[in-house]
Amino acid sequence: MRAAGNEVTLAPPADTGRLCAVVVSYFPDDGLPSRVARIAAQAGKVFLVDNATTGPAIGAIEAAAHQANVVLLRNANNRGVAGGLNAGLDAALREGFACAILFDQNSDPDPALASTLLALWRDLAASDRPALLGTNYIDRHRDRPALHCADGEQVAAQTAVIISGTLLSLEAYKAIGPFREEFFMDLVDTDFCHRARNLGYGVYASCEPLMQHAVGHATSRSILGHRIWVSNHPAWRRYLMVRNSLILQAEAGQSGAGWLLRTFAKQLRKSLHVLLYEKDGLAKVRAMWRGFRDGIRRDTRCKPWEPS
């Protein structure tokens, strides 16, 4: 769908010189330098944005930053995925880059990720106005592709894509606005994609898996012949997932007694799974219900990632 007015040029760069990457880090493991090296081999520059890491983990960040074409940007405090992306993309805009591929610190890209996404983007731009082109990936926990496409399909339209491995037009970023920092981490990508689509931009994903990635620390159990997966996110993440989801639903116009009842029932089911199958389930369920309360109120003042 094309947006009316406010036309911008969304063609990809002709070469990787105008393509950069943004990687957000926070207490990374020792594998960060090698992952950043694989990213740097595919882009004109890597903006490595660190969210106030301290202690021994700084060594991995400094080793990654000492590589060619890598620039380290340090945030004075933890601004989350949203703030880290905004800092890196603002730097990319100042330096005149046309597109950026976004990564979190744990994603491991295929060597052909950038070239494949750029080729797909050129085809999309001939008939649409893409803002984001995400990457199908192999889920490390489940050992299978996250996205399932029709046979022969190379790219698929999406409601939203995960941030990591996503090619983003910087002209579109300027039009859509920054990532939502009060969301900090969870549903930051969903919010941004929804805003893009509301402005008439396209959101797509490559059908070919071009990255290895893990969501949380997922584990599964077989219960009466059914496999149940749980993500094992900590309590503060559970809070954000619930709160931010309800805020987005309210902003999309969902309301009324029926919606509230369905949402309440869904929350009960999720609470039961967490309580039964995850460690520290009671603390996580309490956090989820605090998120439910604050989400209904659209209250984003709570910052559970900060030390109390």
From TrEMBL:
What Gene3D superfamilies does its record include? Spore Coat Polysaccharide Biosynthesis Protein SpsA, Chain A (3.90.550.10)
Q: Which InterPro entries match?
A: Nucleotide-diphossugar_trans
Assigned keywords, A-Z: Glycosyltransferase, Transferase
Database matches in SUPFAM superfamilies: Nucleotide-diphospho-sugar transferases (SSF53448)
Look up keyword ATP-binding and say if it applies: no
Q: Is Kinase among the key words of this record?
A: no
As for family, the record states:
Belongs to the glycosyltransferase 2 family.
Q: What is this protein called?
A: Rhamnosyltransferase
- Species this protein is from: Thiobacillus sedimenti
